[in-house]
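Study this:
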Amino acid sequence: MKPKVRRVQAIIKDYASIISTDGNVNDNELKEWLLLDDEIENKSTKNIEKLINEIKKSAGYLDRMELSSQRMSLYKQGLTDNEIADIQEVTPMAIYYWRKIRGLKSNYVKKRGRKKE
């Protein structure tokens, strides 16, 4: 891989990390940051827009990875799909699908009542 490509990928990763931790960065702010960055050689409008899209994609990936690791820790604590969904503010079906993809069993334990005589 060329050093120039590696440098651009590092820039994308750095800005994606900032966006995923801050979350309140809009396109105009990001554009200003990129224009001020000395490491970016091609500062044409088209290239900056392309970089912004790549940064957003990468930030979205980082957010999903963080959510997934949080889900796994909640799952390992023994929480049910509904409890995890409430904490992460998603539907229980999203948690069910996430769990099935990974081949994980449900943490739900049926409560057995007493038999009536």
About this structure: Residues 3-62 form one domain. The mean pLDDT is 85.
